[in-house]
Amino acid sequence: MAYKERLNKRGFEETRPIEAKVGIIKRADGSAYFRIGNTIAYAAVYGPRNLFPRFLQDPQRGILRCNYNMMPFSGSGERVRPGGSRRSKEISLVTGKALLPVLNLEEYPNTVVDVFIELPQTEAGSRCAGICAASMALADAGLIMKDLVAAVSVGRVDDKLVVDLDYSEESYEGIVADIPIAMIPNSNKITLLQMDGMIPKEDVKKVLEMAKKACKKIYEVQKSALKDKYKVEQDV
Predict the structure, then answer these.
(1) Looking at residue 236, what is its pLDDT?
(2) Contact present, 136 and 25 (Cβ < 8 Å)
(3) Residue 117, CA distances (Å) to 1, 67, 68, 106, 136 in order
(4) CA angle 34–35–39, rounded 5-degree value
(5) Looking at the domain assignment, is residue 187 inside a domain?
(6) Is 80 a residue whose pLDDT tops 70?
(7) Residue 169 has what pLDDT?
(8) How many CB atoms lie within 10 A of CB 24?
(9) Residue-wise pLDDT tens digits, 25-79
(10) Inter-axis angle of helices 126-140 and 201-235, nearest 10
(11) Domain assignment present for 116
């Protein structure tokens, strides 16, 4: 049977409900909360601070380190095994690569910027939510940035092209392709593009356009969260 409508009645190009806040972890230099549907990500930034041991320092630029972690009972499927895993290491790596293009780390030689991403609850799209939260947390920390990074998953469920797959769609028994994409909204440059599954070549351009529109929407939510924080601080 063809996939005629989404199981939660969303439009095929519609994201799940989105919520974002910044400055939520007091002892961090920058922090953020990002929720899309039932997937929740917290990000905390510490730094720039001196990197030790000294032989790891780069006199030309600072170093970005990202740590992605899903809590044991966060998943919609099986229990997540606590501690590091190959998947968490891979997502930590691609998160850092997705964020680096907007950071001007040449301003912070011999230092490190640590980003910790924790997901207490997930229902698909966790790496994209983590990237969105981390981008806001870096901005909240006051680092020099060219722009924010927004991320969303797009893909295919049977013969339909969709935005922001949820768990029911990722685990759908028919044909499924999940494509996490991170973009710099003002320039439309892609900083992350991965794919799990197969999709016809002619549909790739279509889903990229769908991702661009969704990232613009997420970008506005990210900017509003940052503006709201500083508006509140000015009013106090």
Answers:
(1) 54
(2) no
(3) 39, 6, 5, 24, 12
(4) 125
(5) yes
(6) no
(7) 86
(8) 16
(9) 999 999 999 999 999 999 999 999 999 999 989 999 999 999 999 887 766 655 5
(10) 40
(11) yes
**With bands split at pLDDT 50, 70 and 90, how would you rate the model's confidence at 82?**
low
> What's the domain range around 32?
18-235
DSSP line for 77-137: SSPPPSS--HHHHHHHHHHHHHHGGGB-GGGSTTEEEEEEEEEEE-SS-HHHHHHHHHHHH
Cβ partners under 8 Å of residue 91, min gap 6: 68, 126, 127, 130
Q: 217 with 11: CB under 8 angstroms? A: no
pTM to 2 decimal places: 0.92
Q: Where are the beta strands (DSSP E) in the chain?
A: 18-22, 30-36, 39-50, 63-70, 111-121, 150-157, 160-163, 176-184, 189-193
Supply the CATH number for residue 52's domain.
Answer: 3.30.230.70
CA distance 111 to 90: 23
* 15, 221 Cβ separation under 8 angstroms: no
Neighbours of 189 (CB within 10 A): 14
**Tens-place pLDDT, residues 168-187:** 888 888 889 999 999 999 99
Residue 222 has pLDDT above 80, yes or no: yes
- Whether the upstream peptide bond of residue 53 has omega within 30° of 0, thus cis, is yes
Please check whether residue 143 lies inside any domain of the structure: yes
Contact 96, 125 (CB under 8 A): no
For residue 149, with 0-12 CB atoms within 10 Å meaning exposed, 13-18 middle and 19 or more buried, which class applies?
buried
Between 113 and 10, the higher pLDDT residue: 113
Q: What is the pLDDT of residue 174?
A: 83
